Automatic annotation (TrEMBL):
<keyword id="KW-0812">Transmembrane</keyword>
<feature type="transmembrane region" description="Helical">
    <location>
        <begin position="56"/>
        <end position="77"/>
    </location>
</feature>
<keyword id="KW-1133">Transmembrane helix</keyword>
<keyword id="KW-0472">Membrane</keyword>
<feature type="transmembrane region" description="Helical">
    <location>
        <begin position="28"/>
        <end position="50"/>
    </location>
</feature>
<feature type="transmembrane region" description="Helical">
    <location>
        <begin position="117"/>
        <end position="141"/>
    </location>
</feature>
<feature type="transmembrane region" description="Helical">
    <location>
        <begin position="84"/>
        <end position="102"/>
    </location>
</feature>
<protein>
    <recommendedName>
        <fullName>Facilitated glucose transporter</fullName>
    </recommendedName>
</protein>
Length: 143
């Protein structure tokens, strides 16, 4: 099949019919480990979010989560050329934060709650945790 539209890539992918090789196995393994790292990053960032310096809340884990997520996406981009596959650590991070934000838990535990500024900690975590890796992906796609 040739190109159907002007200025579009060919829609034929002969590499999809090849057999699964050892390099593919390593790639899938590394991407899976990076996705698991995204889950661990979300759990640690969520649980360390209410850290205080004295009496002032200092959610440094939100900033660190953004930097770690950017590093995970950057590492995933070195193992795959697909931005969708490279976004897997970010997607698992977002899914984990969404699960942790549910209020219906055994024992009625609430992860994202607190007085004053900490009432908006979940929004801060989402903003600071997703903007740096989204910028890495945007830069890769538009490069």
């Amino acid at each position: 099949m040739g190109p159907r539209f002007a200025r579009r890539r060919d829609r034929q992918h002969p590499d999809l019919s090849s057999s699964f090789t050892g390099a593919d196995f390593r790639r899938v393994t590394v991407l899976t480990l990076l996705a698991i790292d995204g889950v661990l990053c979300a759990i640690l960032a969520s649980f360390f979010l209410p850290i205080h310096i004295g009496t002032i809340p200092f959610p440094v884990s939100a900033l660190l989560a953004g930097l770690v997520n950017a590093a995970l996406v950057w590492a995933a981009l070195h193992w795959t050329s697909s931005p969708r596959a490279a976004a897997l650590p970010l997607l698992t991070w977002l899914l984990t934060v969404a699960v942790l934000s549910l209020r219906e838990r055994p024992g009625d535990d609430i992860v994202f709650d607190g007085p004053g500024v900490m009432a908006y900690a979940a929004l801060l975590l989402l903003a600071l945790g997703t903007l740096p890796p989204a910028a890495v992906l945007w830069r890769y796609v538009n490069a």
